[in-house]
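User: Study the chain.
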Amino acid sequence: MSASLRSFGIGLFVAGAALGMVQLTSKESPDTQQSVKDTSTTATTVKTLEKENAALKKELTALEKKLTKQQQKQPAKKATATYTLHIETGMGTTEITNTLQKDGIISDAREFEQYIIDQGQATRLQNGSFTLQKDMSYAAILKALTN
């Protein structure tokens, strides 16, 4: 009976060991399970980010097109032509206004000369070099020449 009991005990031990080995080899360890979950989560995250990236690229393209259209609608700003007028001693109002008209700063020399006279500034024009722009008003030109 003791031999039978011993054989039975050894049988149980071998069976338990065999089951333990099967369990260890067939089931993934918790670390492996976590790694599989991480890989799955990473793949899902990558897919989500790729979708968001594609949507953002479409939005960027649409915004670039909109900007291009707006830029085409807006007229290009013209560079304002600058001109340097040199007034020397002895130059009269007529000579100055004719020079300004000839160089395209004003459209009508007589009209500007009359404006200078009407403003009482004909005797206040200064000698020197003055930088003027084509889009300046009569008042701005006169102010530049008298200061």
About this structure: The first strand starts at residue 82 and ends at 87. The CA atoms of residues 93 and 123 lie 9 Å apart.
